[in-house]
Specification:
mainly alpha; 2 helices
């Protein structure tokens, strides 16, 4: 019995040691990956800052070129307008566009139903195309006590 207790103690010690080695290995691997990602993020940030300065230099060059034949304020205004148009074009290119050419987006299965009700600006819901079910009054008709069936749902599908 004493030998089994001793073996259980060794097993527990071995499991604890293996868990500690695994934790240290994982921790070291994560540190290495974090170091690489931090370096990459720093390089991207530096690249973005330099691109910003390059864009400013191009805008300045455009403004100075326009300044040759125009007053200073007009050259600055035209440069600002060009930068605004370029920003709008880039923003539009970055936005996802709905499917064109009459195709239905994949998020909506089946053919699209024609817009009705509030979508078309009509102040009332569209008329149903199918005949009403038994026990349901016609539109505009008041329910009569004899025609109401408690088992029939009072809404239309």
């Amino acid at each position: 019995m004493e030998r089994i207790d001793h073996l259980e103690h060794l097993d527990k010690h071995l499991v604890d040691e293996l868990a500690q080695v695994a934790r240290e290995t994982i921790r070291e691997e994560l540190r290495e990956q974090t170091r690489k990602q931090r370096r990459r993020a720093t390089l991207y940030a530096a690249s973005g800052a330099l691109a910003l300065y390059a864009g400013a230099a191009v805008a300045l060059a455009v403004g100075l070129a326009l300044d040759i034949g125009l007053p200073d304020w007009a050259a600055a205004l035209i440069t600002a307008a060009l930068l605004g148009v370029l920003a709008y074009v880039l923003r539009s290119a970055a936005r996802p566009h709905p499917a064109h050419h009459g195709t239905v987006p994949s998020a909506q299965p089946g053919p699209a139903a024609p817009p009705t009700g509030a979508a078309t600006g009509t102040p009332y819901p569209p008329m149903p195309t199918a005949a009403p079910s038994v026990g349901v009054p016609e539109p505009g008709e008041a329910p009569r006590p004899g025609r109401i069936d408690p088992e029939t749902p009072h809404h239309r599908a």
